[in-house]
Amino acid sequence: MYAPSFAAPTTVAEAVQLLANASGVARVLAGGTDLLVQLRSGILKPDLIVDTKRIPELRTITTEGGGYRIGASVSGAEAGEHATLSRDWPGIVEAVELIGSTQIQGRASFVGNLCNASPAADSVPALVAAGATVVIAGPNGEREVPVEEVPTGPGSTSLAKGEMVVAVKLPPKPARTGDAYLRFIPRTEMDIAVVGAGVCVTLDEGGTCTAAKVSLGAVAPTVLVVPDAAAALIGNKLDDAALAALDAAARAACKPIDDKRGTIEYRTKVAGVLARRAAATAFKRAGA
Amino acid sequence: MAPDGTPDLKVVGTRPIRPDGVDKVTGRAQFGADFQLPGQLVGKVLRSPHAHARIRSIDTSKAEAIPGVKAVMTAADMPEITSEEAFVGEGPADFKDMSGNTMARDKALYDGHAVAAVAATSAAAADAALAAIEVDYEVLPHVIDVEDAMVEGAPVLHDDMFTSGVDPKPATPSNVAKRMVFELGDVDAAFEKADIVIERKYKTAPVHQGYIEPHACVAQYAADGQVQIYCSSQGQFMVRAYVAKLLGIDISEIRVTPLEIGGGFGGKTLVYLEPLAVVLSRKSGRPVKMAMTREEVFRGSGPTSGGTVWVKIGAKRDGTIVAGDAVLKFQAGAYAGSPVGPGCMTAFAVYDLQDVRITGYDVVTNRPKVAAYRAPGAPISNFGVESAVDELARELDMDPVELRLKNAAKKGTKAAYGPTFGDIGCVETLEAVKNHPNYNVPLGPNQGRGVAAGFWFNIGGESSATVNINEDGTAVVATGNPDIGGSRASMAMMAAEVLGIDVERVRPIVADTSSVGYCFLTGGSRVTFATGMAVVEASKSAVNELKARAAKTWDIPVDAVEWEDGRAVPAGSNAGDFEPLSLEDLAAKSGRTGGPIAATSSLNAQGAGPGFGTHLVDVEVDRETGHVKVLRYLATQDAGRAIHPSYVEGQIQGGAVQGIGWALNEEYIYDDKGRLENPGFLDYRIPVASDLPMIDTVVVEVPNPRHPYGARGVGEVPIVPPMAAMANAIQDAIGIRMTELPMSPPKVRKAVDEQAAAEE
Ligand SMILES: Cc1cc2nc3c(=O)[nH]c(=O)nc-3n(C[C@H](O)[C@H](O)[C@H](O)COP(=O)(O)OP(=O)(O)OC[C@H]3O[C@@H](n4cnc5c(N)ncnc54)[C@H](O)[C@@H]3O)c2cc1C
Fold it and tell me: Does A94 sit in the ligand 1 pocket, CB within 6 Å?
């Protein structure tokens, strides 16, 4: 009979030690909305489960030099209720709030969403577009990497044995910056993104884009950063030509699969559509 | 009496709280998977991973050797059944096929087909046993699509299937089980008279009923051969009859206790697990509990058919429809018996046509055997016909409601399937749409409005009811129909109406098969009509007995006693001057006036009133993503008489919502090996609450003269019109005729792109 060990440490150091010393497969348990589903269906049978929700620093959102540090086990609902986070990064909060339902929201975390490494994870393109990083703790100390460097393929990450994510960091937000995330699903909720698009732009006083980052989900094995799409916006206002160029660049970057959730043709077209629509919202939020 | 001649009613037509409500909202109600017996084993099913395979052999020895495993079974443990027609709820089936469907014998005919089952002391031991069963399969070519299955050279599922209904009888077997034709007048000649002819082919996808509760049961086979089954189903008597037949057990040996049912919609008018649980219990000597997972529900239980619908209609310039012709090809799943018959019979039933012909084909494919689903067959043919009628309205530049009004079936219309309609409410539902504010709401860009009308027969049939008057003057009403749509409330209300007491004083129960007379299953929108009739009859008998007791007490003839407001009163001054005797008084004294008061009624209810409904929907189409948003939805329907209007509205809303799912997203996705890729609610997309607007309803009441209170069945009509109404609305919004379901975002976007390409 399968019976995994379970631990609920109260410090990062303890958690890292447990993970590093584990024999066999060890998994972090944040909200469990991916992990428990995988356990139940028998896809995954870890030998050790380390619950990180008892580690106080992983449960809080703090501000740091104008930016944010979001503990790795903070839930979507907690992010949504934070006093200033959704004012500063509405795209990120709306992305995490798209996950599941009210019940799921009480548990699901950004970091779980990221480390589950689904190509369709909703909060990830939004974090990538905003230039977020993660702080990783391990037996050899801490390191910080851009969010897009964590997933390496469906279900796999660049975390080494004994490593865990302790926080997501959002940079101080430059003036006249706006972000947005949109996903397409056939229904209105409780579904997996067919395509997701995150856009973050910074404008000058005249409304011309000076910096941009565009990210796409569910159209490749991992989240995509699309520099050509950003280039289509930089130096331009939100006009038809820029949007058409953005649409084309987004489509060109797609490397989707044909599966039960969408065809290559459809995913590619919708990626362009969502990139345009997210860009329009991001420009508006940036003050255009 | 009301001005229209209907009797004044005190309870019927009100909205009391449902008697089963508290248990259901507090979680106390026992559904199929909640029931336990001491010492029960866990039963599980091994299912075929192949769409079509010959079973060369099954070796269960390793499974049997696993500790905790108490029984392993295959088809060899079930009697071989000879072909015999079974009346299954709302469609034909054969007991031999039913046996084969519960446990594959020589061939596995679809991905998910049961091939063996085990019972063990734990779920883990049962899983280990399933993994240890060795099935030697010879994988065969398979066929999923209905038209592919009809072509010559297609893999043949049953080598003894020779198409019936064609002359001469074919010499070679095929996947076409049956051909049928319904015809009225001279269709070919009638088309000659038409100014405009619309001809097109439509296609629908098989869809699952999507009940939330997976199939579950507990069975106990005692040492003396007595069988107890506890399960959720659409009919405890149906379960009893089928288990008896499939296992060769006398009906008197089987007692089936109904548990609460968490949705069925037709899908629980069959047995899947019950015969297996009985066999496993017999082999192990222990009670066996079996419950499907959601994945098993999708892979192993029956959806309704998908099919193609070719339609041709001809009309005069003034909008008079002069001829209708249709060819329906329905896939039945792995065994014969799609609802193509009712599909044909209902196809043009909304219209008053003299010349009409419908041809149907029943076709087997390597998919789960279809089961009934609300108005089986009708939504499929309706999608074709009502789409074509909408095209006709556009061609004629005529309002689609006016076109339907001009041609609507009414009293005296002879339907293509035979009968001449009596009192029906088709016109009334169309007018209710016209008079509703939704009909005139202005529409914005990419928004459109669609209308469609639908028909369903409704059935009556055999039902029984017992009314027991308790010592304190309350009453218990026992019937044998599982309560799916609020029927307990309706039964209590009808009894209360006759007895003349508050509905709270009547306790309705759903009794087991040994405690109440036979009732045909809950299906065909029959329970409020037929079982309701039995309840009314039994209540009337109880009232007669109460009057007799009063007559005895007063020592006057019984016909000098009347029953008013729950009391016996002397019939006028000649009868004598007595204080009224209430039901409570009479019940309290019943021991001294002749003993307990109880009455039963068993009948075969005839004259179920046909049901009609018209739906009006507004949608907005996102041309870039292909997403269709439902803005407004109105469903009007003739209920004859709404016994409990909230449950009538609930039925209408539920049917409309299932229809919206059928229209927009629901489909089975198979890989190239014929394996189902979306056996779960994540990727089999029924609508979620936020996908839907409020479903507005208008209940029209054209009383059914054959029911004591005028009731007609209401549960099935509302799933008939939604698909065509949605397609018609999409056409109105973007000028594109979607001919294939589901009208999912990728398909709509593709159609938009094709339209743009064609315009260039
Ligand atoms: C009903 C339902 C609906 C859903 N809808 C959506 C949706 O709309 N969009 C969407 O993107 N997802 C959806 N999901 C998936 C899931 O809810 C999200 O991915 C969620 O963000 C996961 O977060 P969690 O905290 O629950 O992660 P967990 O399940 O706890 O963990 C997920 C994975 O991340 C690893 N992990 C967790 N924390 C760490 C850490 N600190 N360091 C290293 N690894 C870690 C775990 O070991 C595990 O492998 C849905 C799930 C359900 C059940």
Answer: no
